[in-house]
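Figure 6 in text form: structure in, sequence out.
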């Protein structure tokens, strides 16, 4: 693997702050995400000089300008490809990808599914505000069907992507969902993503105050969030609700939302969350849950072990070096596999 260096110093959250103005709109959920990431980075143990943020194009993709680490503001939809090269070239780096629902799900869709399939050890922060914000309000791949936008004045006629479902379909090993209005949840989820070995995808339900204001209000509103969100934790029963009296249980191979105390249902009847289950059946169920039948699943939904791409790549390269008869340029030039002029 790449050479590992001793950290120049132990980083604190102040080391990641730039002090320059953050040019997102007032009220943008990005401010909260940035603050949460800055709080989490010292906890990961990665030396500051080994941290890289890579982004594509969009409001979210200005992130590398607002954090004091190495950064790469790349091309539209290509952040995953560039981050893959960075990680393959130097596996000791802590690589974070910041992208939006348009950047990653539309022009970057191919790169998105393949970095997940390869299971490269990077962290993807997917800002999902269900709109193209930087380019002034066009509908995106996650915009709800029927929505009125600048490019769908009669309502969208396309089915929206579910990022979690797409991650599962690409054989993802880590998927989590959080909201920009809950810093504590974000910090816990980001820390879990950083600790995962492989591609971690964190979907952040983010508010765009200008073009999709309150798009997540049914989930994030103070009066409804406890009833309409379920924060999953590995090894704990699936409980939600203002009174903590609602839960999820299996009935005849079907997941249902139930009320504890009704029809003899107790906490022991509820599903215990297993984020590490290789069988992704329940994980699929959780990422698909929607209001009003179910609460929206939050937290780490899936986190399973698998081989990591750059480790396997390194092993292949080392094996090839060991077994190859050609050890240097002289060996290559005199290998016999060269063209000789007869003229």
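Output sequence:
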């Amino acid at each position: 693997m790449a050479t590992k260096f001793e950290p120049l110093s132990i980083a604190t959250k102040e080391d990641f702050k730039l002090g320059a103005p953050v040019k997102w709109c007032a009220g943008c959920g990005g401010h909260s995400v940035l603050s949460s990431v800055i709080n989490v980075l010292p906890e990961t143990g990665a030396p500051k000089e080994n941290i890289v943020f890579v982004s594509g194009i969009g409001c979210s993709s200005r992130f590398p300008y607002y954090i004091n680490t190495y950064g790469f503001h790349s091309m539209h939809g290509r952040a995953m490809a560039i981050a893959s090269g960075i990680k393959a070239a130097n596996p000791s780096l802590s690589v974070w990808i910041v992208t939006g629902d348009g950047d990653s799900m539309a022009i970057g869709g191919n790169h998105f599914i393949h970095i997940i399939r390869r299971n490269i050890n990077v962290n993807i922060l997917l800002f999902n505000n269900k709109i193209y914000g930087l380019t002034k309000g066009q509908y995106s791949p996650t915009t709800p069907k029927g929505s009125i936008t600048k490019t769908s004045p009669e309502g969208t006629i396309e089915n929206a992507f579910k990022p979690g479902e797409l991650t599962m379909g690409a054989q993802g090993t880590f998927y989590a969902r959080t909201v920009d209005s809950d810093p504590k949840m974000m910090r816990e989820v980001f820390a879990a993503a950083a600790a995962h070995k492989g591609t971690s995808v964190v979907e952040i339900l983010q508010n765009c105050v200008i073009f999709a204001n309150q798009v997540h209000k049914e989930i994030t509103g103070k009066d409804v969030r406890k009833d309409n969100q379920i924060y999953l934790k590995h090894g704990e029963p699936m409980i939600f609700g203002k009174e903590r009296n609602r839960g999820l249980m299996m009935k005849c191979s079907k997941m249902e939302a139930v009320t504890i105390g009704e029809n003899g249902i107790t906490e022991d009847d509820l599903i215990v969350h297993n984020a590490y289950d290789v069988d992704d059946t329940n994980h699929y169920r959780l990422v698909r849950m929607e209001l009003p039948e179910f609460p929206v699943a939050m937290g780490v939904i899936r986190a399973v072990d698998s081989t990591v791409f750059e480790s396997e790549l390194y092993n292949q390269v080392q094996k090839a070096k060991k077994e190859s008869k050609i050890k240097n340029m002289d060996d290559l030039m005199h290998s016999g596999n060269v063209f000789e002029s007869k003229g």
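Caption detail: Residues 1-5 have pLDDT under 50 and may be disordered.
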